[in-house]
Specification:
This protein is α+β, with helices and mostly antiparallel strands. 47% of the residues lie in helices and 23% in strands. A hairpin with a 6-residue loop joins strand 4 and strand 5.
Length: 195
């Protein structure tokens, strides 16, 4: 990846939080399908992904279908921010897509750190602002780009994503069906072969 998948970290110095997770956190391993957080239950953790990948999932309003709404890769932070800071119910489930190793740190302790100094509080505010900008950008993409355009933008940012993740998760993230994603991929492959 030329840039992190989760762009909220760009221009943020999160080295202190990373070191905090490594120094005072606990290394936990997850197998594929295991949950770090469960939607509706209190969120507790902020983690630094040492190895693997997680997906953020959310149930539809009927509680039937689950949708993939985000991913976190190696070298990024994983959490339901800001709910993990105050142990509020998680708005998402966070599931390991593959075997993962994470340095976990209690979110409530990070919240206490934010209250300890103006500099730490400022860092927490910048994280929140950048998360908002990332979310706003993704929402704009859903309104202003069609499925193929969203897929092409994703490939520009993360060309290796199709080797790392199941296509059904990528399709869900793009808000298209797996069948339509397969069609887009065939069209792109076919047009690349003609060039």
């Amino acid at each position: 990846m030329t840039e992190p998948f989760n762009t909220y970290t760009i221009d943020l110095d999160l080295q202190y939080v990373h070191e905090l997770c490594k120094r005072e956190g606990e290394i936990v391993s997850y197998q594929r399908g295991q949950l770090l957080e469960r939607e509706g239950e209190p969120a507790h953790w902020i983690g630094f992904v040492e190895q693997g990948c997680f997906k953020y999932c959310k149930r539809d309003f009927n509680g039937n279908d689950e949708h993939t709404i985000g991913f976190v890769f190696e070298g990024e932070f994983v959490c339901d921010y800001p709910n993990c800071l105050t142990a509020k119910p998680s708005t998402v489930s966070i599931e390991a897509v593959m075997p993962c190793r994470v340095s976990l740190f209690p979110g409530e302790r990070l919240e206490a750190l934010y209250r300890s100094s103006h500099e730490a509080e400022r860092m927490g505010r910048y994280i929140m602002q950048n998360l908002f900008l990332q979310t706003y950008s993704r929402m704009s993409s859903l309104y202003c780009a069609d499925g193929r355009q969203r897929y092409e933008l994703l490939l520009q940012r993360c060309p290796q994503i199709v080797q790392q993740l199941p296509l059904k998760d990528i399709a869900s993230f793009l808000n298209i069906t797996p069948t339509y994603l397969s069609k887009i991929r065939r069209e792109i492959t076919f047009s690349a072969g003609k060039a």
